[in-house]
Amino acid sequence: MDLQQHMVKATAPGKVILFGEHAVVYGRPAIAAPLSELRATAIIQPGEHEGVLLSAPDLGFKKRLTDVGEDDALALAVHQVQNAIGIDRLPDMTITVTSEIPIASGLGSGASITAAIVRALAIYLGRGDLATDNWVSQLTFEVEKVYHGTPSGIDNTVVTYERPVYFVRQQPQNRIETFEIARPLPLLIADTGVSSHTKAVVSDVRRAWQADNTRFERLFDGCGAIARAAREAIACGDLLLTGQLMNENQELLIDMTVSSPELNHLVAIAMQAGAYGAKLSGAGRGGNMIALVDDELEAAVHKALLEAGARSVLSSRIKS
Ligand code: PMV
What we know:
Blueprint: E1 8-19, E2 30-46, E3 52-56, E4 61-64, H1 73-85, E5 93-99, H2 109-124, H3 133-148, H4 154-161, E6 165-168, E7 175-177, E8 185-191, H5 198-211, H6 213-235, H7 239-255, H8 261-272, E9 277-281, E10 288-292, H9 298-307, E11 312-318
The structure holds (3R)-3-hydroxy-3-methyl-5-(phosphonooxy)pentanoic acid.
The site of (3R)-3-hydroxy-3-methyl-5-(phosphonooxy)pentanoic acid has 16 residues, from helix 4 and helix 5.
């Protein structure tokens, strides 16, 4: 094993789902984009102590790999890489993880942290040759399965490739396409401050789909049609239509029962302040909403969202 004796650092971005969350789990297309300004970072250094030390200073977490449960997210990422590379004993090292992405808020924090660890560790272990985007994405997906139950694969894809993607979950291989963005999409991303756990929301939707299959299939079909139309609208630079499609998607997400009073409130405020469109992003029931804005109205919408109680508002330009 050609071990790196120096520090290795890898990062991965957060993400927003622009169209198609939940329906994407059931094979309908969805559109997601990276948030490059919010990142998770993994730093690996030669260990001063025996064994592997996992450290997440933001969370006050510092433990030996041998002392954490098998289901710990950081440990899972490490074991994925260890198994994939096929080494029995890891060298002594310290893995430090930091993240600017709020946890449990629909911005892909879990997938991003995992992707950063997977990439850094492969390089540290002298297998940077393996650490292609495809490989990092696949290993991140395996960890996501433990955390999300039935993830679609869109989160690991967008945080690893770090490009806006049009994504369809399908066998034998997911359809992952980049697409044209004729005009950058000015987005505001507002946090309700309510934490939401993707696994719980995704399994609630599954139960509802099992209970009323016809209705939910219709809702998912509607989301799929919206995502397809949105791809065209974005490719033409039509912000007005893109915004309208966001509003239509939000209505379907409300019907799916994954919105919340806080999300609906921020959506309404963004629309009153002049946004082209607004919707929840990610699993819902809390977390973040996104609003598509005109450059001239951005400051006004931003202010209105903060005044309406958003915990934070981030501004981002989604580009090709
Ligand atoms: O809440 P997040 O950021 O993990 O996004 C989940 C997106 C879902 O479509 C609800 C689930 C999935 O795996 O695609």
